[in-house]
Write a structure and sequence with these properties.
CATH class: Mainly Beta
Bound molecules: 2-oxoglutaric acid, fe (ii) ion
CATH superfamily: q2cbj1_9rhob like domain
Helix content: 25-40%
Number of strands: 10
Largest sheet: 7 strands, antiparallel
Number of domains: 1
Strand content: 15-25%
CATH architecture: Sandwich
CATH topology: Jelly Rolls
Number of helices: 8
Shape: globular
Distance between the termini: 28 Å
Protein backbone atom coordinates (compact mmCIF):
# COMPACT_ATOMS: atom_id res chain seq x y z
CA UNK A 1 0.00 0.00 0.00
CA UNK A 2 1.34 3.43 -0.93
CA UNK A 3 0.81 4.84 2.56
CA UNK A 4 3.10 2.19 4.07
CA UNK A 5 6.08 3.15 1.94
CA UNK A 6 6.00 6.87 2.70
CA UNK A 7 7.70 6.75 6.08
CA UNK A 8 10.99 5.30 7.18
CA UNK A 9 10.69 1.82 5.53
CA UNK A 10 10.46 3.32 2.06
CA UNK A 11 13.40 5.68 2.35
CA UNK A 12 17.16 5.40 1.92
CA UNK A 13 20.19 7.59 1.26
CA UNK A 14 23.69 6.60 0.20
CA UNK A 15 25.03 9.85 1.71
CA UNK A 16 25.46 10.61 5.41
CA UNK A 17 22.84 13.25 6.21
CA UNK A 18 23.22 15.95 8.88
CA UNK A 19 21.87 15.15 12.35
CA UNK A 20 19.31 17.97 12.25
CA UNK A 21 17.91 16.62 8.97
CA UNK A 22 17.63 13.09 10.37
CA UNK A 23 15.91 14.39 13.48
CA UNK A 24 13.45 16.34 11.35
CA UNK A 25 12.53 13.18 9.42
CA UNK A 26 12.23 11.18 12.66
CA UNK A 27 9.88 13.82 14.00
CA UNK A 28 7.62 13.50 10.97
CA UNK A 29 7.74 9.68 11.29
CA UNK A 30 6.69 9.81 14.95
CA UNK A 31 3.80 12.17 14.26
CA UNK A 32 2.65 10.09 11.30
CA UNK A 33 2.92 6.78 13.21
CA UNK A 34 0.67 8.14 15.99
CA UNK A 35 -1.89 9.47 13.52
CA UNK A 36 -2.02 6.12 11.68
CA UNK A 37 -2.14 4.04 14.90
CA UNK A 38 -5.10 6.11 16.10
CA UNK A 39 -6.91 6.08 12.70
CA UNK A 40 -6.79 9.85 12.44
CA UNK A 41 -5.95 10.34 8.74
CA UNK A 42 -9.49 11.55 7.80
CA UNK A 43 -9.32 14.07 10.65
CA UNK A 44 -6.02 15.42 9.36
CA UNK A 45 -7.73 15.93 6.00
CA UNK A 46 -10.53 17.85 7.78
CA UNK A 47 -7.95 20.04 9.49
CA UNK A 48 -6.27 20.79 6.17
CA UNK A 49 -9.49 21.49 4.24
CA UNK A 50 -11.78 23.06 6.83
CA UNK A 51 -9.48 24.03 9.71
CA UNK A 52 -11.43 21.92 12.23
CA UNK A 53 -12.51 18.33 12.83
CA UNK A 54 -14.90 16.50 15.15
CA UNK A 55 -13.72 13.42 17.05
CA UNK A 56 -16.73 11.43 18.32
CA UNK A 57 -16.85 9.51 21.64
CA UNK A 58 -13.41 10.50 22.89
CA UNK A 59 -14.25 9.45 26.46
CA UNK A 60 -17.17 7.45 27.94
CA UNK A 61 -20.36 9.39 28.81
CA UNK A 62 -19.75 8.96 32.58
CA UNK A 63 -16.39 10.72 32.28
CA UNK A 64 -17.95 13.61 30.34
CA UNK A 65 -20.75 13.92 32.92
CA UNK A 66 -18.12 14.16 35.62
CA UNK A 67 -16.16 16.81 33.67
CA UNK A 68 -19.37 18.83 33.24
CA UNK A 69 -20.34 18.55 36.90
CA UNK A 70 -16.85 19.51 38.04
CA UNK A 71 -16.84 22.61 35.82
CA UNK A 72 -20.25 23.69 37.16
CA UNK A 73 -19.14 23.02 40.76
CA UNK A 74 -15.98 25.13 40.30
CA UNK A 75 -18.05 27.85 38.59
CA UNK A 76 -20.32 27.91 41.63
CA UNK A 77 -17.26 28.20 43.91
CA UNK A 78 -16.15 31.19 41.81
CA UNK A 79 -19.59 32.81 42.11
CA UNK A 80 -19.59 32.42 45.89
CA UNK A 81 -16.06 33.85 46.06
CA UNK A 82 -17.18 36.81 43.91
CA UNK A 83 -14.70 36.06 41.13
CA UNK A 84 -16.88 34.54 38.40
CA UNK A 85 -15.78 35.71 34.94
CA UNK A 86 -18.73 36.94 32.81
CA UNK A 87 -18.68 36.02 29.11
CA UNK A 88 -21.55 38.21 27.92
CA UNK A 89 -21.16 41.46 29.82
CA UNK A 90 -22.41 42.36 33.27
CA UNK A 91 -26.07 41.72 32.28
CA UNK A 92 -25.40 38.32 30.68
CA UNK A 93 -25.43 35.00 32.49
CA UNK A 94 -22.75 33.12 30.56
CA UNK A 95 -19.42 32.61 32.27
CA UNK A 96 -15.91 31.19 32.05
CA UNK A 97 -14.37 28.81 34.59
CA UNK A 98 -10.59 29.18 34.60
CA UNK A 99 -7.47 27.35 35.90
CA UNK A 100 -9.25 23.98 35.59
CA UNK A 101 -6.09 21.90 35.25
CA UNK A 102 -4.87 23.10 38.64
CA UNK A 103 -8.24 22.65 40.37
CA UNK A 104 -9.16 18.95 39.90
CA UNK A 105 -7.21 15.87 38.69
CA UNK A 106 -10.03 14.88 36.28
CA UNK A 107 -8.78 17.55 33.88
CA UNK A 108 -5.38 15.83 33.67
CA UNK A 109 -7.05 12.79 32.07
CA UNK A 110 -8.85 15.05 29.58
CA UNK A 111 -5.80 16.97 28.41
CA UNK A 112 -3.83 13.72 27.99
CA UNK A 113 -6.57 12.00 25.88
CA UNK A 114 -4.61 10.44 23.03
CA UNK A 115 -6.62 11.25 19.91
CA UNK A 116 -7.19 14.98 20.36
CA UNK A 117 -3.60 15.40 21.58
CA UNK A 118 -2.23 13.64 18.46
CA UNK A 119 -4.17 16.07 16.25
CA UNK A 120 -2.98 19.06 18.26
CA UNK A 121 0.58 17.73 17.84
CA UNK A 122 0.01 17.60 14.07
CA UNK A 123 -1.09 21.25 14.12
CA UNK A 124 1.31 22.61 16.72
CA UNK A 125 4.40 20.39 16.75
CA UNK A 126 5.75 18.11 19.46
CA UNK A 127 6.92 20.96 21.68
CA UNK A 128 3.58 22.78 22.08
CA UNK A 129 2.26 23.64 25.53
CA UNK A 130 -1.06 24.21 27.24
CA UNK A 131 -1.97 27.87 27.49
CA UNK A 132 -5.18 27.38 29.46
CA UNK A 133 -7.97 24.92 30.30
CA UNK A 134 -11.35 26.65 30.58
CA UNK A 135 -15.02 25.78 31.05
CA UNK A 136 -17.34 27.82 28.76
CA UNK A 137 -20.88 27.96 30.13
CA UNK A 138 -23.24 29.65 27.65
CA UNK A 139 -26.69 30.46 28.96
CA UNK A 140 -29.99 30.96 27.06
CA UNK A 141 -30.66 34.56 26.04
CA UNK A 142 -27.08 35.80 25.80
CA UNK A 143 -25.77 37.14 22.47
CA UNK A 144 -23.24 35.14 20.40
CA UNK A 145 -19.54 35.72 20.91
CA UNK A 146 -17.87 37.73 18.13
CA UNK A 147 -16.02 35.66 15.55
CA UNK A 148 -12.30 35.64 16.14
CA UNK A 149 -9.12 33.61 15.67
CA UNK A 150 -7.39 32.15 18.73
CA UNK A 151 -4.26 34.15 17.87
CA UNK A 152 -5.56 37.28 19.60
CA UNK A 153 -2.39 39.32 20.04
CA UNK A 154 -0.84 38.37 16.72
CA UNK A 155 -0.62 40.99 13.95
CA UNK A 156 -1.67 39.89 10.47
CA UNK A 157 -0.48 38.17 8.41
CA UNK A 158 -0.88 35.43 11.05
CA UNK A 159 1.76 32.68 10.59
CA UNK A 160 0.43 29.71 8.61
CA UNK A 161 2.10 27.37 11.11
CA UNK A 162 -0.48 28.19 13.81
CA UNK A 163 0.85 29.91 16.92
CA UNK A 164 -2.12 28.50 18.87
CA UNK A 165 -4.81 25.83 18.42
CA UNK A 166 -7.67 24.58 20.50
CA UNK A 167 -9.77 21.62 21.61
CA UNK A 168 -13.42 22.13 22.46
CA UNK A 169 -14.83 19.28 24.56
CA UNK A 170 -18.55 18.94 23.88
CA UNK A 171 -20.16 18.31 27.28
CA UNK A 172 -23.75 18.95 26.13
CA UNK A 173 -25.05 18.03 22.66
CA UNK A 174 -24.04 20.84 20.28
CA UNK A 175 -26.60 22.27 17.83
CA UNK A 176 -27.42 25.77 16.61
CA UNK A 177 -30.20 26.12 19.24
CA UNK A 178 -27.92 24.76 21.97
CA UNK A 179 -25.39 27.55 21.30
CA UNK A 180 -22.73 25.43 19.63
CA UNK A 181 -19.45 26.89 18.46
CA UNK A 182 -19.77 28.71 15.10
CA UNK A 183 -17.04 28.25 12.49
CA UNK A 184 -16.18 29.56 9.03
CA UNK A 185 -14.93 26.45 7.19
CA UNK A 186 -11.62 27.01 5.41
CA UNK A 187 -11.02 30.41 7.02
CA UNK A 188 -7.78 29.16 8.62
CA UNK A 189 -6.20 29.77 5.20
CA UNK A 190 -6.95 33.52 5.26
CA UNK A 191 -4.22 34.29 7.84
CA UNK A 192 -6.00 37.47 8.95
CA UNK A 193 -8.49 38.24 11.70
CA UNK A 194 -12.17 38.13 10.64
CA UNK A 195 -13.94 41.32 9.57
CA UNK A 196 -17.59 42.26 10.22
CA UNK A 197 -18.89 40.31 7.18
CA UNK A 198 -17.41 36.98 8.36
CA UNK A 199 -20.54 36.17 10.39
CA UNK A 200 -22.51 35.66 7.14
CA UNK A 201 -20.23 32.74 6.26
CA UNK A 202 -20.42 31.06 9.70
CA UNK A 203 -22.05 27.68 10.32
CA UNK A 204 -22.92 25.99 13.58
CA UNK A 205 -21.21 22.75 14.61
CA UNK A 206 -23.42 19.75 15.31
CA UNK A 207 -21.80 17.23 17.65
CA UNK A 208 -22.83 14.74 20.31
CA UNK A 209 -21.83 15.06 23.92
CA UNK A 210 -18.46 13.29 24.37
CA UNK A 211 -17.08 14.62 21.08
CA UNK A 212 -14.01 16.83 20.91
CA UNK A 213 -13.68 19.50 18.23
CA UNK A 214 -10.03 20.11 17.38
CA UNK A 215 -9.35 23.33 15.46
CA UNK A 216 -6.52 25.33 14.00
CA UNK A 217 -6.17 28.57 15.99
CA UNK A 218 -6.29 30.52 12.72
CA UNK A 219 -9.90 29.37 12.11
CA UNK A 220 -12.58 32.07 12.40
CA UNK A 221 -14.94 30.87 15.12
CA UNK A 222 -16.93 31.90 18.20
CA UNK A 223 -19.64 30.70 20.59
CA UNK A 224 -23.18 30.77 19.17
CA UNK A 225 -26.22 32.18 20.98
CA UNK A 226 -28.19 29.60 22.96
CA UNK A 227 -31.95 29.69 22.42
CA UNK A 228 -32.85 26.47 24.26
CA UNK A 229 -33.61 26.83 27.98
CA UNK A 230 -30.70 26.25 30.36
CA UNK A 231 -26.99 26.22 29.71
CA UNK A 232 -24.42 24.64 27.43
CA UNK A 233 -21.11 23.51 28.89
CA UNK A 234 -17.99 23.24 26.71
CA UNK A 235 -14.38 22.90 27.77
CA UNK A 236 -11.38 24.23 25.89
CA UNK A 237 -7.81 23.02 26.14
CA UNK A 238 -5.91 25.82 24.46
CA UNK A 239 -2.39 25.17 23.15
CA UNK A 240 0.38 27.49 22.09
CA UNK A 241 3.92 27.23 20.81
CA UNK A 242 6.75 27.57 23.31
CA UNK A 243 7.55 31.18 22.48
CA UNK A 244 4.07 32.44 23.40
CA UNK A 245 3.16 33.51 26.91
CA UNK A 246 0.47 31.16 28.25
CA UNK A 247 -2.88 32.53 29.47
CA UNK A 248 -2.39 30.58 32.70
CA UNK A 249 1.04 30.16 34.31
CA UNK A 250 0.45 26.43 34.77
CA UNK A 251 4.10 25.71 35.49
CA UNK A 252 3.80 27.77 38.66
CA UNK A 253 0.69 25.99 39.98
CA UNK A 254 0.88 22.35 38.82
CA UNK A 255 2.44 20.31 41.63
CA UNK A 256 5.31 17.84 41.32
CA UNK A 257 2.82 15.14 42.46
CA UNK A 258 0.63 15.89 39.43
CA UNK A 259 3.72 15.68 37.20
CA UNK A 260 4.71 12.32 38.76
CA UNK A 261 1.30 10.67 38.25
CA UNK A 262 1.09 11.59 34.53
CA UNK A 263 2.96 10.52 31.38
CA UNK A 264 6.23 12.46 30.78
CA UNK A 265 4.66 14.69 28.14
CA UNK A 266 2.41 16.26 30.79
CA UNK A 267 5.42 17.99 32.38
CA UNK A 268 6.32 19.52 29.06
CA UNK A 269 2.73 20.56 28.31
CA UNK A 270 2.43 22.55 31.53
CA UNK A 271 5.70 24.39 30.86
CA UNK A 272 8.35 22.58 32.94
CA UNK A 273 10.77 22.72 29.99
CA UNK A 274 10.11 26.25 28.80
CA UNK A 275 13.36 28.21 28.48
CA UNK A 276 11.65 31.49 29.45
CA UNK A 277 11.46 33.40 31.69
CA UNK A 278 15.04 33.14 32.92
CA UNK A 279 15.25 32.25 36.62
CA UNK A 280 17.85 32.51 39.37
CA UNK A 281 20.48 34.38 37.29
CA UNK A 282 20.61 31.67 34.63
CA UNK A 283 20.26 32.92 31.07
CA UNK A 284 17.32 30.53 30.61
CA UNK A 285 15.97 27.26 31.97
CA UNK A 286 18.57 24.72 30.67
CA UNK A 287 15.78 22.15 30.11
CA UNK A 288 14.61 24.38 27.29
CA UNK A 289 17.90 24.27 25.40
CA UNK A 290 17.09 21.18 23.24
CA UNK A 291 14.05 22.98 21.81
CA UNK A 292 15.81 25.93 20.18
CA UNK A 293 16.69 24.11 16.96
CA UNK A 294 13.69 21.76 16.49
CA UNK A 295 11.08 24.47 17.07
CA UNK A 296 12.20 26.26 13.94
CA UNK A 297 10.29 23.51 12.12
CA UNK A 298 6.47 23.64 12.32
CA UNK A 299 6.39 20.04 13.62
CA UNK A 300 9.23 20.59 16.09
O1 LIG B 1 -17.59 28.63 23.61
C1 LIG B 1 -17.35 28.46 22.43
O2 LIG B 1 -18.10 27.81 21.68
C2 LIG B 1 -16.11 29.06 21.80
C3 LIG B 1 -15.26 29.81 22.78
C4 LIG B 1 -14.09 30.48 22.14
O3 LIG B 1 -13.83 30.33 20.99
C5 LIG B 1 -13.18 31.32 22.93
O4 LIG B 1 -13.52 31.70 24.06
O5 LIG B 1 -12.09 31.66 22.43
FE1 LIG C 1 -11.85 31.08 20.48
Amino acid sequence: MATESTSVEGRSSKRARPRAVLEHDQRLDRIRADLMRLDLAPHVLDLELYGYTILPEVKPPAFCDQLRETILKLGEEDRIAGRRIPLAGADGQSYLVTWLLARDPIFEAAVMAEKPLALITYLMGESCQISSNHGHVRVCGDPPQGLHTDAPLVAAPIPSAPVASNMMWVLDDFSEEAGATLVVPGSHRQLVHPGPSAAKAAVSITARKGSVIVFNGNLWHGAGARTLPGERVGMTVYFNRMYIRPQEDLNAVISDEAIARNPPRFAHLVGRNNPYPAREYAFFNPKGYPYFEPTQDRFG
